[in-house]
Amino acid sequence: AQTVTQSQPEMSVQEAETVTLSCTYDTSESNYYLFWYKQPPSRQMILVIRQEAYKQQNATENRFSVNFQKAAKSFSLKISDSQLGDTAMYFCAFMKSAGTYKYIFGTGTRLKVLA
Amino acid sequence: NAGVTQTPKFRVLKTGQSMTLLCAQDMNHEYMYWYRQDPGMGLRLIHYSVGEGTTAKGEVPDGYNVSRLKKQNFLLGLESAAPSQTSVYFCASSYGLSSYNSPLHFGNGTRLTVT
């Protein structure tokens, strides 16, 4: 069975600084999808960034980028130029590319951006 | 666009009472999911549906039932509420399984308290 581990329950970063959130996963699959979701205090879950395992190039969305290390089964999220609006809970999620429709979520990292 | 709409937003039940949570999506998505979110445990899948008229069990299905009579609606029922079902419930939907259309779209959640 697949598992997703986020080892940092809480983190903080100064505004305009860079922070990296870690995520590791365990799977025997060769192809799969990985996601980072953001949950601000409003509770609405929002997709931040996604990565397909067969693509070696790391995904980037504006200030958000990932460091995808397939061999190490690591999928960390880097937030550059942190803004107060980045304060949220961040969840890493895994999904197999076939045979299942289920997403496996990590337990989340609560990020606080300090003014 | 409404996206994914959950009703109600808050509810308090007494042990043994029943209730139904409604999820509606207007994106013509095939797949719909019910998750519960508990502190320190991330999101856990309760039930999901891969199309109208179909449902399947997730990680924590006990004590819940679901129905998907119409493609746009996915109902979650609690027949006899228990304090252990106190949680925040999220409905989500997705169009398909490719990386492009597999990201989940979430509702705003329902906070349920069972006393």
Low-confidence stretches of chain A: none
C-alpha end-to-end distance of chain B: 36 Å
Instruction: Give the CA-CA distance, first to last residue of chain A.
Output: 41 Å
Describe the biggest sheet of chain B?
7 strands, mixed
Poorly predicted tracts of residues of chain B: none
Radius of gyration of chain B: 13 Å
The helix/strand series of chain B, from N terminus to C terminus, equals EEEEEEEEEEE
Main β-sheet of chain A, in a few words?
A: 6 strands, mixed
The strand count of chain A comes to 12
Mean pLDDT of chain B: 92
Total number of beta strands of chain B: 11
Class by alpha and beta content of chain A: mainly beta
Describe this structure in words.
The complex is a heterodimer of chains A (115) and B (115). Chain A is 0% helix and 53% strand. By secondary structure, chain A is mostly beta strands. The model of chain A has no long low-confidence stretch (mean pLDDT 92). With 115 residues, chain B is an all-beta fold. At the A-B interface, strand 5, strand 6 and strand 10 of A face strand 4, strand 5 and strand 9 of B.
